Structure formats: structure tokens, C-alpha cells
Amino acid sequence: MAGCAELFPRLSLRLHSEAEKEALAWAPFSLGALASLTGLALTVCLIPVIARGSQVGADYWWTRDLYQLRFQADGLSLLAVLALYALGLLIHLHMLGLRWPRQSHHRAALLLAAQGCGAGAVLGADLIALVFFLELMLLCLWLLASLDAPRAAGRLLATAHGGGLLVLGAVLLMWRQAGDTSVTALPLLLLSAEAPGLRVIALLLFLGLLPRVLAVPGHGWLPRLVAGPGHGVKPRPMDRGRSPGGPPRLRHPPVGPVTALAPAVLLLVVSAALMLRLLPGSLMLAVVPTLGPLALALGMLGLWWGALRAWVAAELGELAAWLSVAQSGLLLTALAATGSPTGSSALLQAAALHLVLAPLALLALWSAASAVKARVRSDALAGLSGLLRQMPLTGVTLLAGGLSLAGLPPLGGFHVQRLLISGLLRAQHPLVAEAILLADALLLFAVITAFRAAFLRKEPPPPVARSSGWLTAQLLLLTAALLLAGIWPGPLLRWTDVILHTTLSVSP
Amino acid sequence: MTAPPLSAPVVVAILFSGGLLVLATALACRPRRAAASFGWMVVAGLAYAMLALAAALHLRDSGGLRASLVQLLAVALAASLGLLCGPRKAAESVAEGGLGAAARGVAWLTLVGLPPTLGFHAKVVIYRVLLTTGWAGLAALAIVASAAGMAPALWAFRAPRPAMSGPRAIIAVALIAAIIVLGVYPQPALTLADLVQVIGQKG
Predict the structure, then answer these.
(1) Which of A52-66, A385-399, B162-176 has the lowest mean pLDDT?
(2) What does the pLDDT read at residue A41?
(3) Percentage helix, strand, coil, to 5, in chain B?
(4) Closest Cα partner for A206 from A336, A321, A307, A302?
(5) Is B169 on the interface with A (CB under 8 A)?
(6) What three-state secondary structure class fits A70?
(7) Which of A13-17, A55-59, A131-135, A457-461 ranks highest by mean pLDDT?
(8) H helices within A99-185, ranges in order?
(9) Residue A272: HSE in the Cβ half-sphere, 13 Å Cα cutoff
(10) pLDDT tens for residues A117-174?
(11) Interatomic CA distance for residues A264 and A271, integer angstroms
């Protein structure tokens, strides 16, 4: 299997030399960044309309009597779309900064298509349209990942598509119960459905979205996607430049960004928004009490398993992968405990904040790992040392992402943890709160150990390639966003409060 | 809608189409030549259509006939595209072609039932018909079979890319366009199925 390169091999630009390719590599990503910026601006324009309580939506005649293509913007979907375009913009900037010459037009187009499909999925007010765009987004991300790691990308497609079919099964069961495929029919379903049917629907929805929020046991595809282009390719001896009597000069293959960066971040935003809309949003977690303990068990398992594996990670990319798995534990725990009558508003607010801040922190981690990999040609911790002097901003970004996930002030993740712990204590789950705090300590230890090994160890540092302005700007923006969300959380908290009282229908 | 008890022809139809679906999917999943896997996936696609027909036999207004016609259209388009991708001579199998690879990818996407192809809508309509008829078990079986169909689809991309030129290329482009257009806007396929149904009833 070879994915995108196999499917569209003749669509690549015909450029004659590496220099030409490198010179033009900036064009697709800068266009992608511009398109993301346009999407971001359009979304921002909708914020005042939604804040006034008005509905923004559009219906298209898709099939006459089966299902309609409906889109509707509310607080939750707007937050997710905003996150999608902001994160997409940062990913485009990252690729632009790395000046990655190979198949850059494929990568930029697929990334943009994945963003568009993700926006379609979160804005979809019809459940069939939602599944359609969710699967289409997965297809784009599979093609994107298959450019570098076809086997692992195949695993992503198989796992997530299996999950997509479970979601489709749940949607069709809802259709049968409520006779309608619109998202607004969900409360009607809860009133009319019998308990066994409702249990099956909730279980299918929950299990179907697990691989996409990177949660255990659907997480297997992520650590395998870490390898980027050029990973494991041995350097070849150069024909020219052999010094007389000396060893032959080696041509190192270019090592690119880690492949999992875009799929991990974009899938998480969309799937977390859908999980929030479909499970607590329709009060399904409160009506189906069996789902809570299952989500809690899987959340705790994911958090601890991710934290432990991050602790023993041998590469920065591997660290980012296992921290991504660990964050899913926080989301699932917050969702699981919302079934209890007390503390649910704080937990839902924590989950809504997590929807934005966790992908931001993960992008910081992935970007730092990717920058190290591209500039040092390896992200193996054993071969890195003393990088802080040459790559101070990358080190700070790695630390900001890791510490935000561990819930340390003054970073954005602190407010997620604060709301989560207070909600859990109010919902009478003190042991779960303690387990989360202990796992956070382990996460913190894992991040600091990796940071020390790569950036602070007093050994001669490896040769480091020059950085570009775009990469510096991207890392700076990421760190600043995480710090800003931590120091000035007011707007985000107000927004999540609006979501709580409108989309998720929690009375104050 | 209260379903009548299962009659003998319906039981036979369910057993035959369900068995064929399981058998064809299992045979498609065996790691072998991509062309053979594709052939078995086409047979599995026909078995989906037969399941919908069995539902129509059991419950006249379940929409099974329309679902089976849409599925047959999707399978026919995918199979035609797959046939165009096959090598005409042994020497062609090593040739490389972007259009051939894209055609093969779209054909597989249709058979597996992934968007943006007509196969996605055909599968949705079939699952809905099975659930409306009260055959949740068969709907679950169909969903599992569809998920299992991912495995041969992923292996198929390893196979050499077929080359396409001349009239074959034009037909392939037309078929790809039809599958994608009907995948994005499926109403014409549903209208066509309704039309065939009406003509059949009048005849």
C-alpha cells in the first residue's frame, strides 16, 4: 500500500532540479496558510452573531426524502472551527518554516481539504452529513500520512474507519428511533427510545469516536505514525568531494516533520467536539448510566498508560505520541463524570476548554519534536544534548506544551485541570481526582526528563541546521497562545460558559 | 411498522445473501492477487443488494428495492472501473499510470463504502432498510463486513499501477466523475432507482 503517492503519482509538478523544488516549496504552504487565515477570519466574523444568540445555518437539498445536507453554527461548532483553522494555519506555517520540498503541493492541498472536511463535520446539523464529512476528513488525513508512512497510515484508516462505521450504525439506529437524521432530533430520541436501544446507540457512538480522540484502545495507529520522511534511511556516500585518503563524504537524506502531527491534532479537535455534542450534549451520558464507568475506566487507563509510556520514551516524537494518548484520559474522565448531578457544569466546561487547549499543547509538542528532527536529523534522546543554546525557542515550546498538558500554571492547561479537579471533587470522585493529579506528576516528570536530556545535558551538541523565520514565528505563536490562555483565560471561559448554557443545555 | 412473520422464500433469501456476503468478504480478505480480491468484493457488493431485496420481499414498503438498485448502480460503476484498470496484456502490468491508480482507488472506495463516492450512500440506504425491517443483526453483519473490506482495499494499493491511454482513459475519467458526482450529490441515483422501480411495477 502506498496511499497518496500511489493514487496520484502523476499530479506532481515537473521540476528539474532540487534547487527549483526547494525554491517553490514555500508556495503551496503559503497558499494553505492564506486559505486557513481566510477561514479563521470568516469564523471570527460569525462570533458576534452567535454571541447575540442568533442561529446561522444553511440547508442544501442533498437527497429529496432521505437526508438533507444541513449546516448550523453554534458556540461549540464555532469554537471547533476556530480551533481547526487556527491549528491548520500553524501547521502550514510549520511546514513553510521547514521548507520541505518533497510533495509540498500534495501536503498543503490535503491538509487544507482535511480542515474543510473537519469544519463540515462539526458544522453538520444532519447526522449523515456529519458521518460523511468525518470519513472524508479521515480519507484526506490518511492520504497525507501515507506520503511518509504508508503502513502506519493504513492502520490509521482501518482503525478509524472501523470506528466510523460504528458511528454510522449509531446514527442509523437513531434514525430508526426518531425517524429523523437531524441533530436536533436527539432529545426526541431520548424521550421516545427504550433503554436497551439507547444503550446500544450510546455505546456505538462512544466506541466509534475513541480511535479519533486518540484514546485507548483505539490509539495503536498514533505511535506508529511518528516516523517522518527520511526516517530510517541510511546516508549514501557522495560521488564527488571525497577527500584523498579520508573517509567518503556522506549524503544524508532529508528528514522531515513527524507524520502524526496533522492527523493527531486535527482529528482530536473534530472528534472531541462531536463527542461533546453527541454524548453529554444530548444528555445521553445522564440517561445511559452504564457508559459513565466505561468512559472513566478507559480514561484512567489512557491517562496512566500514556504517562508511563511517555516516561520511557526514547524519542521526542514518541514522547509527543504518548502524551497525546494521555490527554485523551482527561477528556474521557471529564465526560464520564458529567452523568452525576453535581459538578457536571465544571466538568463540561473543562471538556470544552480541553477541546481547544489540548490540541494547542499537542501541536506545541509535535512541532518541537518535528523542528528538532528536521534541524538535527534525529529526535532520538540518546543522540541529543545541549540543544538549548542553538534551539532555545524549540526547547521553550516543548516545555510549554508538556507543562500545559500536565496542568501547570501559567499555561492554558492549568484551567482545564482546575475545572476538572473541582468538578470531580464536587461530583464526589476524590479518588479519581487524586489519580489524575498523580498522573499529572508523572507527565511532568516525563516532559522534564526529556527536556533535560535533549536541551540541558552538558555534552557536545550535535550539528544543527539553520532555522527559518517562519518556523521561529510558528513556535513563538504557539508558546504565546498557551501562555495567553493561561494568564488571561477570561474570553475562553466566557465562551465555554455560553456553550454550557446553550448547546449543552446545562441550567446554571 | 409491524413486520409480518418471515416466509420461507425470505428465509432462503436471507440465508443465501448473508452467507454469500460473509463468504465473499472472507475470500476477498485472503492475501492474494489484488484482482481476485476486487472480484470477491464485487460479489460481496451484489450480496448487499440481495440483502436489500430480501428486505423488500419481506416488507414491501421498506425501500429495499430502491436500496438494492442504488447498490447495483454503485457496484456496476465500480466493477466497470475495476475492469478498465486490469491489464490487457501481461507486459502492461508493470507500467505505471496515475489515472489507473486513481481509477483503482475510486473503485475500491465505492466498494468499501467510503465518501465521497456513491458507494457510501448506497451502504447508508441499505443499512437503513435493514434496520427499518427490524433486522438489526443483519445490519450489524453488513457493517462488520464493510469494515473487513478495508483490509483488501489497503493491500490492493501495493499492486502495480496499471497504465491507461486512449478510449480507456476517457471512459475511466467519465466513470470516476460519475462516481464522485453521485457521491457528493446522490439524488440522481435515487431518482433513477425510483424510475426503474415504477417502470418495473407498471410492466
Answers:
(1) A52-66
(2) 92
(3) 80, 0, 20
(4) A336
(5) no
(6) strand
(7) A131-135
(8) 104-123, 127-146, 150-178
(9) 35
(10) 999 999 988 888 889 999 999 999 998 888 878 788 888 888 888 889 999 988 888 8
(11) 11
Which of A107-116, A496-505, B110-119 bottoms out in mean pLDDT, i.e. has the lowest?
A496-505
- Chain A neighbors of B190, CB-CB under 8 A: 63-64, 66
Give dist(CA B156, CA A237) in Å, integer.
35
Distance separating alpha carbons of residues A364 and A87, to the nearest angstrom = 10
Q: What does the pLDDT look like over A494-505, one tens digit per residue?
A: 888 877 777 665
Is A256 within 8 Å of A228 (Cβ atoms)?
yes
Q: Which residues contact A450 (CB under 8 A, 6 or more apart)?
A: A313, A316, A319, A381, A398, A402
Question: What is the residue-wise DSSP string for A361-419?
Answer: HHHHHHHHHHHHHHHHS--BGGG---TTTT-HHHHHHHHHHHHHHTT-TTSTHHHHHHH
Q: In whole angstroms, how far apart are CA B92 and each of A196, A293, B95, B108? A: 56, 57, 5, 21
From the list B140, B154, B186, the residue facing A154 with the nearest CB is: B154
Nearest-Cα residue of chain B relative to residue A172: B128
**Alpha carbon distance A102, A21 (integer Å):** 8
The whole-model pTM stands at 0.89
pLDDT at residue A177, rounded to an integer: 79
- What residues in A contact B182, CB-CB < 8 Å? none
Interface test with A, best of B150, B173, B181, B194 (most A CBs within 10 A): B150
Whether B185 contacts chain A with CB within 8 A: yes
Spell out the domain ranges in chain B: 8-202
The DSSP letter of residue A296 is: H
Residues 130..149 of B with a Cβ closer than 8 Å to A: which? 131-132, 136, 139-140, 143, 146-147
Alpha-carbon distance A176 to nearest alpha carbon in chain B (angstroms): 6
In this complex, do B116 and A132 lie within 8 Å of one another by their Cβ atoms? yes
Site of grid cell 489519580: A435
Q: Strands A69-73 and A56-60, how do they pair?
A: antiparallel
**Distance, CA of A264 to CA of A160 (rounded, Å):** 12
Q: Cell 544543527 belongs to which residue? A: A464
Residue B93: pLDDT band (50, 70, 90) is very low
Mutate which of A61, A147, A176 to test chain B, going by most B C-beta atoms within 10 A? A176
Report cis status (omega within 30 of 0) of the bond before A410: yes
Q: Are the Cβ atoms of A10 and B99 closer than 8 angstroms?
A: yes
The reported pLDDT for the residue numbered B92 is 47
Q: Does A64 touch chain B (CB under 8 A)?
A: yes
What are the start-end ranges of the H helices in A124-149? Answer: 127-146
Of A3, A66, A169, the CB nearest to B143: A169
Q: What's the mean pLDDT in A355-363? A: 92
Cell matching residue A238 = 557522495
